[in-house]
Amino acid sequence: MRFHSRRAVAATALALAAGIGTTTAAHASTAYVPFTCEGATLLLRVPSNNAPDTWGAGQIVEGGDGHVIPVAFVHTFTPTGGQAVTDTSVKGGGHALANQPTSTCDTELAVPGGTLAITVTVVIRP
């Protein structure tokens, strides 16, 4: 992927954190994001510091309980009237939690300037 494409995805992720969810002073670095995981609708509280190598766990706050530990992300930003830009990140070169069962979670969000689709592969823990 070209560098400017990665910058566009990173800028979109920053816009996402600024524009979604609710936060309080105690949770200033978190966002609440709805995901569909294996057919179940979950609301996850996730880190929103947007560092490119942040792999923090998300907490399931509605629709179940426990935590999700991300092992891979696919972000696709589609600007209004433009072409989609996709970026993929895999934790540990694909070796992180390799022996654990995984689930796939998806969400699509309206963000300033377009739409952001996120697919994340996670390990779910109680």
User: What sequence of helices (H) and strands (E) makes up the elements?
Assistant: HEEEEEEE
Low-pLDDT residue intervals, each spanning 5 or more residues = 1-26
In total, how many beta strands? 7
**Radius of gyration over C-alpha positions, nearest whole angstrom:** 14 Å
Shape: globular
First-to-last CA distance: 36 Å
SS summary, helix count: 1
Q: Kindly give the count of domains.
A: 1
Q: Report the sheet with the most strands, covering strand number, pairing sense and barrel closure.
A: 6 strands, antiparallel, barrel
SS strand fraction: over 45%
Class from helix and strand fractions: mainly beta
Strand order of the largest sheet: 1-2-3-4-7-6
Description:
The protein is mainly beta. It has one domain. Helices cover 13% and strands 48% of the residues. The protein is built from 1 helix and 7 strands. It has one helix spanning 3-19; strands spanning 30-37, 40-47, 58-62, 67-79, 85-90, 103-111, 114-125. It has a 6-stranded antiparallel β-barrel. A hairpin with a 2-residue loop joins strand 6 and strand 7 (114-125). The longest helix is centred in the first third of the chain and has 17 residues, at 3-19.
